[in-house]
Design goal:
Blueprint (H helix, E strand, L loop, with lengths): L3 E5 L3 E6 L15 H12 L9 E2 L8 E7 L2 H12 L4 E9 L6 E11 L4 E5 L7 E15 L2 E10 L6 H7 L13 H4 L10 E9 L6 E5 L15
Parallel strand pairs: 4-10
Antiparallel strand pairs: 1-2, 2-4, 3-4, 5-9, 5-10, 6-7, 6-8, 8-9, 10-11
């Protein structure tokens, strides 16, 4: 595995996580981003001890895109505060099976996570453990393929709930293409998808030391996005 590193300095590493790669070690024992980057730092700087690396946010295993990691505790604390305060801006591109209600809109729900099944679902406001989930979207294109009507959308994530985009879009009958967990169109299929058509394409944050506003962009990668070329 080779990771595309977009930026590196004394405090942070910004890189592109390939779809299908875990953010952190899991039961699969497959190579993950955290372990890869620690090994990369260990070898690059010829270190004698395991390097410090903080995972500040996560992307689901089948989702690719831009991530930022901290290389020291001070940077980690400042960036964690930024994320908690909603000052980190995250944009995603996605292909949905179906259409959303409007060309531009906001989706607001309340969600709960089931730790036993590692899934989340939309529930009524006031449900025990429910957290508010919000995202805004813009439909970039709607097209017909031999797999039906698909929508190409740009999504800004306003809150960071577990599986949020996947759950909220599926809740409107327009789930993520390839998502066998939440999209009923794919849940019935036997094929295993290592990637889904959801990609973190833009990340904006304030550098923890220089205070410069950092903006990173990356167009979607992966075979799953080739479905757009199937347009009739």
């Amino acid at each position: 595995m080779k990771i595309n590193i977009l930026h590196e300095d004394e405090d942070i590493i910004v890189c592109v996580k390939p779809a299908g790669v875990p953010t952190q070690p899991d039961r699969s024992n497959d190579e993950d981003m955290e372990s890869y980057l620690k090994n990369y730092l260990f070898e690059k700087y010829e270190m004698e001890e395991e390097p410090y690396l903080a995972v500040l946010h996560r992307l689901d295993r089948p989702v690719g895109g831009i991530m930022v990691f901290a290389k020291n505790r001070e940077a980690a604390a400042r960036l964690s505060d930024e994320i908690s305060d909603g000052r980190v801006t995250k944009y995603y591109q996605a292909i949905l099976t179906g259409e959303l209600p409007e060309d531009v809109g906001t989706l607001t729900d309340y969600m709960v996570r089931d730790g036993k099944t590692n899934t989340s679902k939309i529930v009524d406001k006031g449900t025990k453990g429910a957290k508010r989930a919000e995202l805004s979207y813009e439909v970039l294109d709607v097209f017909e393929t031999d797999e039906g009507i698909l929508s190409y959308v740009l999504i800004q994530l306003m809150t960071g709930r577990h599986h949020q985009i996947r759950v909220q879009t599926a809740g409107r009958g327009a789930g993520i293409y390839g998502d066998t967990r939440y999209n009923p169109v794919f849940a019935r299929r036997k094929r295993i998808y290592r990637e889904i058509a959801l990609y973190a394409t833009r990340l904006e944050f304030t550098h923890p030391t220089t205070r410069e506003r950092m903006v990173f962009k990356q167009e979607p990668e992966g075979d799953i996005f080739d479905v757009m070329e199937m347009e009739e």
